[in-house]
Amino acid sequence: MTPPLSLDPAHTRILDVDPLIDDPKTRIVVCCGSGGVGKTTTAAALGLRAAERGRKVVVLTIDPARRLAQSMGIDSLDNTPRRVKGIETVEGADGGELHAMMLDMKRTFDEIVEAHADGQRAEAILGNPFYQSLSAGFAGTQEYMAMEKLGQLRARDEWDLIVVDTPPSRSALDFLDAPKRLGSFLDGKLIRILMAPAKVGGRAGMKFLNVGMSMMTGALGKLLGGQLLRDVQTFVAAMDTMFGGFRTRADATYKLLQAPGTAFLVVAAPERDALREAAYFVERLAAEDMPLAGLVLNRVHGSGAAQLSAERALAAAENLDERGIVDQEAGNVELRTPEEAALTDDTTTTATTPQATATAATTTPAAPPAPAATDQLTAALLRLHAERMQLLAREQRTRDRFAALHPEVAVTEVGALPGDVHDLAGLRTIGDRLAAGSNPAGAV
Amino acid sequence: MSRLQVVSGKGGTGKTTVAAALALALATEGKRTLLVEVEGRQGIAQLFETEALPYEERKIAVAPGGGEVFALAIDPELALLDYLQMFYKLGGAGRALKKLGAIDFATTVAPGLRDVLLTGKACEAVRRKTKQNKYTYDYVVMDAPPTGRITRFLNVNDEVAGLAKIGPIHNQAQAVMRVLKSPETAVHLVTLLEEMPVQETSDGIAELQAANLPVGRVIVNMVRPAILDETELALAQGGASRTAIAKSLSSAGLGGARKGGNAERLVTPLLDQAAEYAERHDLEHGQRAVLAESGLPLHELPLLAEGMDLAGLYRLATELRKQGI
Ligand SMILES: Nc1ncnc2c1ncn2[C@@H]1O[C@H](COP(=O)(O)OP(=O)(O)OP(=O)(O)O)[C@@H](O)[C@H]1O
Ligand SMILES: Nc1ncnc2c1ncn2[C@@H]1O[C@H](COP(=O)(O)OP(=O)(O)O)[C@@H](O)[C@H]1O
Ligand SMILES: [Mg+2]
Ligand SMILES: [Mg+2]
């Protein structure tokens, strides 16, 4: 049953994103991966592309780069989707809309409280220092709230496609695990004991817990001056009606992720750590029956001159360097270092003496004379190329390793842009590259 | 040089790597440093290619000149148990609490409590002395949480104030704050020359300073080598003739310079690569200027193209020494 091991990149399956985002049955696309690899960028680019191809899309971004958020008009943090202006509909694909929002995790948490508790009770919860610390800082709150928001957006049913970004956690798995952790924590036995020790005390097996309970109350009370514990108890009491709700909601959203209309895209950079994370995630998705659409390999490098190897480029550069030194010696500039000579040559590219270039010509009779400054530039271009080719080779090795491990995963490659992606035009470019599939040569 | 060196920065910029290199750099010439980890990720063990670190100080490396680097992965649960033991001689009750999940509960439910335990342990190591009344460690280097959380993490007093107004935790928080806000501490920020990390660094500096926490240095990591100098950049961006470049390539043995020849066909892609390089160069230049505005000392560490390993770590440490750390 295992697909054949393949080290040949040509055998890698190609991920075609257009059919995925065009398919009306696709309702949710989740972009995940480890931090900084381009999840937010990919999510926004896919959302834009889908909208321009005629779908009514909402993109839920988490922690986007400031300029990107500004350019999409979603930097105001009001925790609701905003219509993005400036989309350019593809011919014959009318009706598309792009809405986007940036998750505000504290606001989302507050909203859950407000929706589930009456005025006074809600106020008591929101003002509780324990709640404040939990809603702003609990590891996993952001993941839980992202799931929560996704559930809310889906329930509104106003969009035909929801593209979700995931929190910038170190591990892609956190997105799947953290909500359950928080959910079961808020829902858990301990918190119930805290809430009402008497309720569980009757059952025989719970005796121990009661002993533990009083011990804990005592110790923690002493340690924290008793006050934290009281805050927790007040909080728990105030939240009473909501418990169970957390777990149920987390479970419901989790199910949503397993539903047929959901597709996962794992984003990774062609680097060892990022691809290792991606591999973990791929395995986990399979274990959870969550549908993986494929891997987006982001910030891949290419070269238009891939036929020239790093070694040959470096050898040629050295060849030019050596001749440059010969030139300078011949050119009566013995008081200048080569660097200084280069600097003055800058303003007079063509002023090199004919004698000097003639010297160069004699060493390589095959070619016509070239001025020393040009040789120096050419040598630098060749060194730059060699560096690029070495980078390509490293990226290729990490990619091949992933492909050998997971030949079943479809891949699309997105070339690295020289600068950041911070406007719709940049997102469109990324979208085009996403849709171009696996095409390293075209990647720049 | 402050004795507690805290290393923060945007996720993935190289906090763990730089903290380790710094610990090595500070250990040269017979000094002894302690490298502490607070996020339970075993990043140090991975970097030094050793098995997972226990909650126990262990020697993990020797530095040039006979120095030693110790490492400690602080576990908040164990730190709390230690603490309870120290103050209340809890013994078995502590274990029972752990079994119940109470310790887990207490340390996760109140991030401020967890943080005060972590920073408290680091500060204890900073102040610890030997029988000869000398400091046990010359320096303690902390691989700290990322920029987005560092101020809250270090500002334990404020965090805990809302939760524990009296009691030993409260006192502990105050003792920790005295160390953290003193010149004994320096918080360094690691960044890349890219928009998001630089932005985060600027925000982080402002936040730390507003909280009166001592900001130390900015360490720019993974700096790509300069391959084209200003002259060459200017030439590549218009000064040079394409024919001349083709001829130059051809003269270096890369084929024909005539249109369609092997050398000639290299000109466009090579110039494209140079244009990309120029764009990145400009961007990096702009980001450097933003960082310079902070007025903090800037250091740069090279991108090790072959990837990180122990040898690379020593190289980064040497580089830090060279730059006066
Ligand atoms: N100067 C460098 N040259 C090459 N690679 C580097 C350099 N510094 C760090 N790296 C690599 O970059 C990656 C991230 O580094 P590291 O784990 O130190 O970052 P971090 O900030 O601690 O990350 P996290 O936020 O996940 O804790 C690692 O793979 C590391 O080996
Ligand atoms: N293909 C690309 N080319 C150039 N820059 C990119 C590319 N993809 C992402 N970036 C940049 O990398 C940075 C991190 O991207 P982001 O999408 O915010 O990552 P994540 O959400 O995974 O943390 C941003 O500044 C973004 O503009
Ligand atoms: Mg992001
Ligand atoms: Mg780290």
Automatic annotation (TrEMBL), chain A:
Stretches for region Disordered: 328-371
Domain of life: Bacteria
Name of the protein: ArsA family ATPase
Family annotation (Pfam families): ArsA_ATPase
Every ArsA/GET3 Anion-transporting ATPase-like domain range: 26-300
SUPFAM superfamilies given in the database record: P-loop containing nucleoside triphosphate hydrolases
Molecular function in Gene Ontology: ATP binding; ATP hydrolysis activity
CDD domains cross-referenced by the UniProt entry: ArsA
Bias (Low complexity) ranges: 344-365
InterPro entries from the UniProt entry: ArsA/GET3_ATPase-like (IPR025723), ATPase_ArsA/GET3 (IPR016300), P-loop_NTPase (IPR027417)
From TrEMBL, chain B:
Gene3D superfamilies linked: P-loop containing nucleotide triphosphate hydrolases
Upper lineage: Bacteria, Bacillati, Actinomycetota, Actinomycetes, Kitasatosporales
Protein name: ATPase
Signal sequence range: none
ArsA/GET3 Anion-transporting ATPase-like domain sequence ranges: 5-180
Molecular function GO labels: ATP binding; ATP hydrolysis activity
Native source species: Streptomyces antnestii
InterPro entries reported for this sequence: ArsA/GET3_ATPase-like, ATPase_ArsA/GET3, P-loop_NTPase
Pfam families in UniProt: ArsA_ATPase
